[in-house]
Fold this protein.
Amino acid sequence: MAPADPCTVIRWLPPPAIGSPRGWNILGLQGALLSHFLEPVYLHSVTVGSLRHTGHLGRALALRQERVGPLPPAYRSHPPLLSGLSSAEGLQLGKAPCVSVNWTLGDGQLEVVNTATGRRRDLGTPSRLCKRVLFARWSRLHCKVLLGQACDGGEDRRPMYSEAKMAARPYQAVKQQWVRSLQDAGLGTWVKKPPEQEHFLS
């Protein structure tokens, strides 16, 4: 199978909305790749703006977390504190903008991305936030930090994106434990992304 282009927008069924925040409470926000370098990063608190219903959100964030069972070191069940704004604003009706703007320290300028395509609005090229670009940065860091050397660029020794994620064994073990707890609690099966989305090299 040829590696997929991760900078191409592919329509897929997202995971249940109720699942992701719960997963952050167990797995952390850092994801599989950054867990090679970091311990789990947990939200401390969540502030909700207009049209809030803290009861619904509280259940979405923290319900039944105790069923996950014992977790390995560094991982824990960590539901965030939940609060709302003192004065809720009314909903402003209108079409949402179809652009996203990003910038980080060291970038020469803002990048404006078309949210429908995931590409830069000015040039039509992939965003610097696409999976391939971020994975290339991760690969360079992985070589320097964990292998103590610069990458030579040989494709025979570089892992694919999916392999690098699976190599984060503690993270993957906790993820599987959490997915099983969702099923045991009758909350459904975690919807996986199509595997071809993650078969590419940096």
